């Protein structure tokens, strides 16, 4: 018998979904909404939190791995990406790690939320192929600043001159009065950067067939969200249903955006905030 050699795609290569900040909140909720054939890698800084999350995911029938990583340290992210690539083909990167105004100084918030996103997108895209996706989690705070303050000229520095990027943004944040407002300003600057940077990366990586989308949640009832209700909860009154989001709602939205069938969805921000931003601007 004779015939042609047929090169089939290695059907044994496993698909990998990496979730930064996957040990809790929105990241963990995304993991639970992923298809079970994907290997889930969750990362964060607190090992105990990751271990608990792994146990929960395994009980639900997932193959899940934990990897400790601080996304504000590029070397950590490089190692996380190498580890994930050693497990199979990286199909999804959900960058849900982040810190809110009550959690850090302006500089720390910018280092984690903004520069961390640069490291995640750059280091993972080196390993990713056609049909894969990066979802960067931003916030509806990205929509509160005028373009005169949050603009391309300032954003671009994050890739070319990190020190200058931090200096400029910390200086802007310090214009606010209270410590919380300073951190809130830095948070908004960092999250508007995430929206801009995800869109930029969609065009940088588009030729490789990698989609990049950002998602901007409103206030969501996670550990972080509950911490912010008192000082940062004013937008809830403008939401259509006058309530916070639930982590599982964001988890489902993000897992859907990451689904391969959404292949034409790239270069945009998905504002998933119960209508708060639109309500404040146009309806009320
Ligand atoms: N909840 C809200 O109301 C809300 C609203 C808008 C946007 N968001 C965004 O949604 C994302 C998820 O937040 P969440 O509400 O799910 O809060 P969360 O439960 O506190 O989750 C954030 C996760 O990020 C991890 N993390 C923080 N800093 C990190 C760092 N430097 N490196 C690696 N991991 C880090 C935390 O784990 P470790 O501390 O162990 O590292 C934690 O598991 C964040 O980007 C947040 O800004 C949330």
Please give the structural blueprint.
Elements: E1 15-20, H1 25-32, E2 39-44, H2 47-59, E3 64-68, H3 74-87, E4 89-95, H4 106-125, E5 132-137, H5 152-155, H6 157-160, H7 162-173, H8 179-205, E6 210-217, H9 223-232, H10 247-258, E7 269-272, H11 276-283
Parallel strand pairs: 1-2, 1-4, 2-3, 4-5, 5-6, 6-7
This protein binds NADP nicotinamide-adenine-dinucleotide phosphate.
Fold and architecture overview:
The chain is α/β, with parallel strands linked by helices and 284 residues long. The chain has a single domain, classed as Rossmann fold (3-Layer(aba) Sandwich). The chain is 46% helix and 15% strand. The protein has eleven helices and seven strands. The protein has a seven-stranded parallel β-sheet, sandwiched between helices. Helix 1 crosses helix 10, helix 3 runs parallel beside helix 4 and helix 4 runs antiparallel to helix 7. It is globular and about 55 Å long. The site of NADP nicotinamide-adenine-dinucleotide phosphate has 30 residues, from helix 1 and helix 9.
Keywords for this entry:
single chain; 284 residues; alpha/beta; Rossmann fold; seven-stranded parallel beta sheet; 11 helices; 46% helix
Structure summarized in a few sentences:
By secondary structure, the chain is α/β, with parallel strands linked by helices.
CATH topology: Rossmann fold
Count of discrete alpha- or pi-helical segments spanning 4 or more residues = 11
Strands, count: 7
Q: Give the helix proportion (percent range).
A: 40-55%
What is the approximate shape? globular
CATH architecture: 3-Layer(aba) Sandwich
CATH homology superfamily: NAD(P)-binding Rossmann-like Domain
Using the CA coordinates, give the radius of gyration.
19 Å
- Major sheet: size, sense and barrel closure? 7 strands, parallel
Q: Topology as H/E string?
A: EHEHEHEHEHHHHEHHEH
Distance between the termini: 76 Å
Mean pLDDT: 94
- Class based on secondary structure composition and strand pairing: alpha/beta
Largest sheet strand order: 3-2-1-4-5-6-7
**Percent strand:** 5-15%
The total number of structural domains is 1
Which small molecules are bound? NADP nicotinamide-adenine-dinucleotide phosphate
Low-confidence stretches: 1-9
